[in-house]
Each structure stands twice: as structure tokens, then as C-alpha cells.
Write a structure and sequence with these properties.
78 residues, globular, mainly beta
């Protein structure tokens, strides 16, 4: 709810085992799950998580710019 992030090119929603990765290198150094392109930069959104993903291994959700390898936002999962 009340989701808002700065708009950017080719932003994806990533599930990472790392709690709030500080860099794209830290994000890409581990196996992560790409849920696909961000549907919009404002408002509520839902994404389907593949059945084979171990939910307990998710440390954070990351909004990530794929072409420029830039993290736009992170949120820890608890």
C-alpha cells in the first residue's frame, strides 16, 4: 500500500535473500528471483511469486534498474 518509487528505465521487482543490498554487486552476487518489470512507480501492485520460491529465504524486495545496474529502492521482508 502507498507504494511510490522514483521512475526509471526498465525497473524490475527482485526478491533477494540479502537484507537491503547496498550495491548492484551485492544483489547480483547471490541467486535472486526477478518477478518482472515494475507495473508502475505509484500505487498498489501485486506480483505472482513462482511456486518453487522458498519464501523463508527472501530477505528483501528490490526495485532494480536492469540496464544500468542501479538499485532504486529496497524493503526488508519480515
Amino acid at each position: 500500500e502507498d507504494f511510490e518509487v522514483t521512475n526509471g528505465p526498465d525497473l524490475h521487482v527482485i526478491l533477494s535473500p540479502v537484507d537491503s543490498p547496498n550495491s548492484s554487486e551485492e544483489l547480483r552476487a547471490v541467486d535472486y528471483v526477478d518477478l518482472g518489470e515494475l507495473k508502475g512507480n505509484v500505487g498498489n501492485q501485486n506480483y505472482e511469486i513462482p511456486a518453487d520460491v522458498d519464501i523463508d529465504s527472501i530477505g528483501s524486495v528490490v526495485i532494480y534498474c536492469v540496464p544500468f545496474h542501479v538499485i532504486f529502492a529496497t524493503a526488508n521482508v519480515s
